[in-house]
Each structure stands twice: as structure tokens, then as C-alpha cells.
Amino acid sequence: MNDNAHDSNAVPDEPVPPSLQGDIERILFPRRRIAARIRALAGRIGGDFGDRPMMLAAIMTGSLIFVADLIRHLPLRMRIHLFGLSSYAGAATESDGARMLGQRGAEFAGKHVLIIDDILDSGRTLAATVEACRLAGAESIRTCVLLRKPPARRKPGGLDQVDYVGFDVPDVWVVGYGLDYGDYYRNLPDIAVLKKKC
């Protein structure tokens, strides 16, 4: 049921803000294209879940803006749970494995769960979350990511396939629309490529 993500050859239609031109190489996915893709994803998700109540498990903090926009297009009965996981330390660009923070997800027992993350990279963050929901007794588990990096980025023990994908991206460091570098750039409304010197 893997979604057909749009290709990554986006034609920018938004300029890089002047204050960020020293940091941002280019806009990869402009805000209007993101909005259109989210509406399409919501249509698929809504059709698949039908009238079943949903438990939406959002992996913070990178998925914050994605989740906020997506759920406004999902007229479903749902509960929202915020998962705290950490897979990147500070300004690191390589995942060192997912670590769950705080809650263990017991509220997922018997629920139809949709796990949402910002990006599929090593796959370890999603794998850890899926396993937590499985151990908690979720009735069904589906996964959704805004971005998916190339398969070569997957690490041993990482999840390789997801059910819903926004966009496929090349192996570059992306920021904006909730994604960060050192906790900066989350507020950029487009998805952009960070310059290597940053």
C-alpha cells in the first residue's frame, strides 16, 4: 500500500527569504506544492480508515507542522498522541538510533494507529515507534512520512517501507516546514536544502 510520492525535481516558486540566503541553498518543495500533496495524502488516508476511529501518533518535534496541516483535512474521529523520540543529537546529520522519551504508548491497545513522522532516513525512529505500538497491543498500525530519503540511507533494524509518503528527496539535508538543523529553520514555510557550510 506504499503511496506513490511525487518526485524531487521541484521547480521553486518561492524565493529564499533574504535573511536566510546565507544558509539556504534552494527551495526544494514550495509551500503551495506541499499543501496540495497533503490534501492528496489526507484523501488516501481517509479512504483507507473509513469510519474507524483513529489514534494518530505524531513523532515530535519535526512532524509538528505536517501533522497540524494534515489533520485539518481528515474529517475522522481521532485521538492524538505525541510521541517523544530522539534520533539526532543537536546539529548532527547522522541518526544515532532512536530513543523513546517518556511515555511508552499503553494507550494504543486495541486502536487503529497512524504513526506520522517528518522523514524516513535510517528508519530506526519509525521502527522503534511501530514496535512500541505493537507491544502496546495496537489492532492495526500504518505509517506516514512527509519525506523519504533514498533506500541506501536505511540502517540495520530500521523500517524500510511506509504506507504513505509525501515526497521522495535526495540525500541532502532538508529544513523547513517543521524540519530543523540545530533546532533552527522549523518555521520556514517551504522545504529547503541547507547549504553544506552550515
The biggest sheet amounts to: 6 strands, mixed
* Radius of gyration, taken over Cα atoms and rounded to an integer in Å: 16 Å
The total count of helices amounts to: 3
**Which class do the helix and strand fractions yield?**
alpha/beta
Q: What's the count of strands?
A: 9
The CATH architecture? 3-Layer(aba) Sandwich
Q: What is the CATH domain class?
A: Alpha Beta
Order of helices and strands: EHEHEEEHEEEE
Low-pLDDT sequence parts: 7-12, 88-102
How far apart, in Å, are the first and last alpha carbons? Answer: 37 Å
Across the major sheet, the strand order is 4-3-2-5-6-7
- Percentage of residues in strands: 25-35%
Number of domains: 1
What quaternary form is this? single chain
CA-based shape? globular
Enter the CATH topology name: Rossmann fold
Helix fraction? 10-25%
Average of the residue pLDDT scores: 85
Write the topology of this structure:
Layout: E1 24-29, H1 31-49, E2 54-60, H2 64-71, E3 78-86, E4 99-101, E5 112-120, H3 124-135, E6 140-148, E7 164-168, E8 174-175, E9 191-194
Helix pairs in contact: 1-2
Descriptive overview:
The chain has 198 residues and is α/β, with parallel strands linked by helices. The chain has a single domain, classed as Rossmann fold (3-Layer(aba) Sandwich). The chain has 3 helices and 9 strands, in the order βαβαβββαββββ. It has helices at 31-49, 64-71, 124-135, and strands at 24-29, 54-60, 78-86, 99-101, 112-120, 140-148, 164-168, 174-175, 191-194. The longest helix is centred in the N-terminal third of the chain and has 19 residues, at 31-49. The radius of gyration is 16 Å and the shape is globular.
